[in-house]
Amino acid sequence: MPEPTIAIVILNWNTRSMLERFLPDVLENSKLPGATVVVADNGSNDGSGELIKQNFPEVKLLQLNKNYGFAGGYNRALNQIDATYSVLLNSDVIPGPNWLEPLVRQLENHPNCAACVPKIKDLNHPEMFEYAGAAGGFIDKWGYPFCRGRIFDRVEKDHGQYNKPGDVFWGSGAALMVRTKEFNQSGGLDEHFFAHMEEIDWCWRIKNQGMTIAYIPKSTIFHLGGGTLNAMSSHKTYLNFRNNLFMLYRNLPQNSFQSTIFVRLMLDGIAAIKFLVSGEWKNTKAVFRAHRDYFKRIPQLKKERLELQNKTTVFSHKEIYPNSLILDFFIRGRKKFSDLNFFR
Known about the structure:
This protein folds into two domains: about 5-225, Spore Coat Polysaccharide Biosynthesis Protein SpsA, Chain A, CATH 3.90.550.10; about 235-315. It contains eleven helices and 14 strands. It has helices spanning about 15-30, 50-55, 70-80, 100-110, 180-185, 200-210, 235-250, 255-275, 280-295, 300-310, 325-330; strands spanning about 5-10, 35-40, 60-65, 85-90, 95, 115-120, 135-140, 145, 150, 155, 165-170, 175-180, 210-225, 320. The strands form three sheets. Strands 1, 2, 3, 4, 5, 6, 11, 12 and 13 form a nine-stranded mixed β-sheet that branches. Strands 8-7-14 form a three-stranded mixed β-sheet, with no helix packed on it. The chain starts with 5 loop residues before the first strand and ends in a 13-residue tail after the last helix.
């Protein structure tokens, strides 16, 4: 049986300085037979392409004609790749030594596993998990994403408490290994999301079709985070609120569809009021813009939902937390994953 090939695909948009800083470590720590580093440039105008050509000749450069966002950029890049497995890797990541082999072994040994994700640590504080993915992702009953090692903005220190591999609900797009052929056949990431939560939507779709997503703690990466949109950006607020509604509409099972959407809209309204009281009027406006654009897109979402429901074979997932994360975190004081009444 031939050895698998691996494409480590870094999507870049005007982050030349990050490529200069991080690419050497990616190359050094990715010397697995059959592995190739690819930079897919999303129409940058900061000289990123020239940097790759001049300083990193061993890197394959795919130059896209404009910025297609996270989803569109990766879709176009992976459609040009014929490797067995592809890693969606952020440009601000330093992989740990030997990080690829445990991920490859997981997919080689588990044909029903569609994707896997490493442990994600904070580059600036390597004793801590990193916000974007930590030790694997989950959602609660109302669609709020969280991770082992991070709930809302509370990030835990890694002292080995999440060193057991296993199924998760989603893996972070900061470092996600997928089966290239299956990713492309699935339609890839939904480009209407542009950025934020598209990987959660993809993982949910794949899980609804009977595949699994795995967390592999023997593989570790260190992520800087916040490289494209600042955490305080109102545009990020807009994308997160809008995309979460897109994701829920497309993937929820019929028996909880209407109630979940209704409650989530109410909770979003409360969040908008909280932003307003806190003087964050741009974020308040972002929530209302998100709802406006969600309602405008419902006719198309209905068509997408019908198509996806026809492919669904699994209607419930043990990786969806059956309670309200908001109540547990803010009212009951459950600030860590281990505090939740989950998997017990």
